[in-house]
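At this stage, I put together a protein sequence along with its fold in token form, as given directly below:
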Amino acid sequence: MQEASFTGLRWIIGIIAFYYIFKFLARIFLPVLVKKAVENANESFQRQQQYSQGNSWQRTQNNNNDEIIINTANAKKPRETKKVGDYVDYEEID
């Protein structure tokens, strides 16, 4: 009987110790991991911007005939609203 309660107590103490150790290590390493993730995202964003600007620069150099081209394929279209039915105003009857 004593062995069963001691084993259960050991499990509870182990879980509490694991929680505090995890909390301590997360406090140390989590800011470093988040900083790395932000730096990687920033580098990826910078590469995308440089790639898209490089492509647009090449396109403008190739079109030297003073022609303006407006691309309307990416223009936002107004949102269509669906009319489901008529509005009915209910009045309270005494």
